């Protein structure tokens, strides 16, 4: 395996770690997809509850796949990241990051010294830059775990930014929008849904709600008595449909499995509407043409037939479920290829991380003078 051209995207979710291996010889090619479920992996703030167990689980995957020493780009929970547009002085490097940390919008009780920040220059005439910040302890912890498991942490990205890389590719492949247009994206993860607004090709609004695919899985388990594994298998099966916006049905071998999950679907749509109204309250004088004309759905659960239509129907807007591998070359094993329709929606963030453009293999060494791990980022544009 050529170390110089291979990269691993590592998504660390609330109960699952997903790996996507890519080859960057020319354009990114997806080579492998692996997932490991670890119940109780992270707490509600995204911190790992058992570092030694996490290291062991990742080390096992790395050893089996022969990935030791490969550079990795890992995820930061979007609800733990801060996104702030601000005008910054014309300085660079560490000085710019120091200024950015004090400009970012912080949570109550959070101080600037606890954050690590990255700056993404904007393209608008206002001269504003996007500052993305996250708790330094959270970034350090994840980088340390990957290093102890045999990988080389290269950079970190929020889940939203990783997913938007795939959104851009899918939209261009389908010619749905111009590159500089405005649009709305919903990224569904295990226990969060991230609502994103892109205006003129730049990320302008991110809001997270504590409601994800686990709510639907729990509704299935309550209705059928299934285990978590069986509920996930039911949702990902190609024989499963969401009917009449409320019933999950699987038709197989002349038998029908049915469960009512309308409460979970309506709760998700309700949160979407609430966030949409909040965005409108912030920008009451702006035009919303193109922003709310269509909702792009990405992430876990979107492979369920009828799911995207049901959510968008509840909201009253048309929607499109995006497939993470659209427009991406694949060179995976036969078993992985055959399972793609069932698993690919859950790998949206991992694939986005694996196809990131970072090229600096010595990032950590460059930043060890002040014992800080500053995460690299590409420009905020989704084009």
Report how far the terminal alpha carbons are from each other.
31 Å
Q: Which of globular, elongated, flat, extended, rod-shaped describes the shape?
A: globular
Please work out how many helical segments DSSP would assign: 11
Q: How many strands, which pairing sense, and closed or not: the largest β-sheet? A: 5 strands, mixed
Instruction: Work out the helicity level.
Output: 25-40%
Biggest sheet strand order reads 3-2-1-4-8
Query: Compute the gyration radius: what is it?
Result: 20 Å
CATH architectural label: 2-Layer Sandwich
CATH topology: Nucleotidyltransferase, domain 5
| Overall pLDDT score | 82
Beta strands, count: 16
Show unreliable segments. Answer: 360-383
Structural class: alpha/beta
How many domains would you count in the coordinates? 1
Q: What can you see in these coordinates?
A:
The two termini are 31 Å apart. The strands form four sheets. This protein has a five-stranded mixed beta sheet with strand order 3-2-1-4-8. The protein has a five-stranded mixed beta sheet with strand order 11-10-9-15-16, with helices on both faces. The chain has one domain: Nucleotidyltransferase, domain 5. With 383 residues, the chain is of the alpha/beta class. It has helices at 51-65, 93-103, 136-148, 159-174, 213-224, 228-236, 262-282, 307-315, 334-343, 348-354, 363-366, and strands at 6-12, 16-23, 29-37, 71-76, 82-86, 115-121, 129-135, 152-158, 183-188, 193-199, 202-209, 240-243, 247-252, 255-260, 295-299, 319-321. It is globular, with a radius of gyration of 20 Å. Helix 4 crosses helix 10 and helix 5 crosses helix 6.
